[in-house]
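Key result, reporting period 2: structure in, sequence out.
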């Protein structure tokens, strides 16, 4: 759908409740907010349901260097254990998966200097940070499931014992293209990259977002109905870039 078509659909939804017209600038704000919420909520079922994976496939990026995808992330820190880090991409919205390739040091599974295969890494939460170092079975080393990572200042910090992280392969959901109309004419600037049915669902949530700002009495009941179909709880452990 073109941005203008989305704007018209948005106005039509509001007209059903005799709500006054919304300016293009107000529309641009609420539709962008709803795009982000749509992606976040769809991700709750990303690993469990094929439909959710299909819905978000055009937003899914893997840093594998093939099929038009970007190359793996390279260490931007020192070539020294516990001094490495990887910058997260600017277009990252949700981090889905992390894998690490490293140069082995003092690891029983590899010879010193040997480069490992890609090893899946687990997010290391603050409450687990100290615990894993005191456990023989959980402490960091270059072997699944003992490869970890932290997120600090929009950077991935590998936690892999004495080995040196060289590359990081991530899967993530990028920000969708912002649906936008001209603030004066209401004509399309950038169109929706979502399928029509997805776009209409985003429109419905944009309407809810707008109605909240004018304190409509319709909002509480609408929000409850939408949340039953839209949200899934509990959400998985994931990283979402903060605005």
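The corresponding designed sequence is given below.
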């Amino acid at each position: 759908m073109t941005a203008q078509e989305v704007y018209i659909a948005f106005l039509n939804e509001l007209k059903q409740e005799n709500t006054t017209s919304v300016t293009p600038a107000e529309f641009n704000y609420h539709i962008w907010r709803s795009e982000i919420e749509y992606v976040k909520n769809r991700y709750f079922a990303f690993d469990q349901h094929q439909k959710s994976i299909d819905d978000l496939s055009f937003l899914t990026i893997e840093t594998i260097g093939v099929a038009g995808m970007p190359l793996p992330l390279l260490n931007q820190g020192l070539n020294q254990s516990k001094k490495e880090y990887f910058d997260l991409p600017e277009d990252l919205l949700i981090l889905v998966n992390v894998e690490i390739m490293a140069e082995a040091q003092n690891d029983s599974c590899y010879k010193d200097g040997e480069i490992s295969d890609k090893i899946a890494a687990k997010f290391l939460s603050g409450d687990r940070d100290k615990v894993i170092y005191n456990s023989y079975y959980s402490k960091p080393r270059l072997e699944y499931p003992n490869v970890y990572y932290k997120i600090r200042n929009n950077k991935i910090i590998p936690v892999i014992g004495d080995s040196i992280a060289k590359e990081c392969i991530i899967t993530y959901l990028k920000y969708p293209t912002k649906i936008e109309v001209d603030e004066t004419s209401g004509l399309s600037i950038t169109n929706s990259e979502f399928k029509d049915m997805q776009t209409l669902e985003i429109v419905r949530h944009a309407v809810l977002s707008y109605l909240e700002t004018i304190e409509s009495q319709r909002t509480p009941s609408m929000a409850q109905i939408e949340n039953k179909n839209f949200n899934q709880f509990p959400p998985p452990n994931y990283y979402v870039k903060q605005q």
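Helices lie at 3-15, 24-43, 50-55, 129-133, 196-213, 219-230. The chain has six helices and twelve strands. This case is discussed further under Risks and Mitigation.
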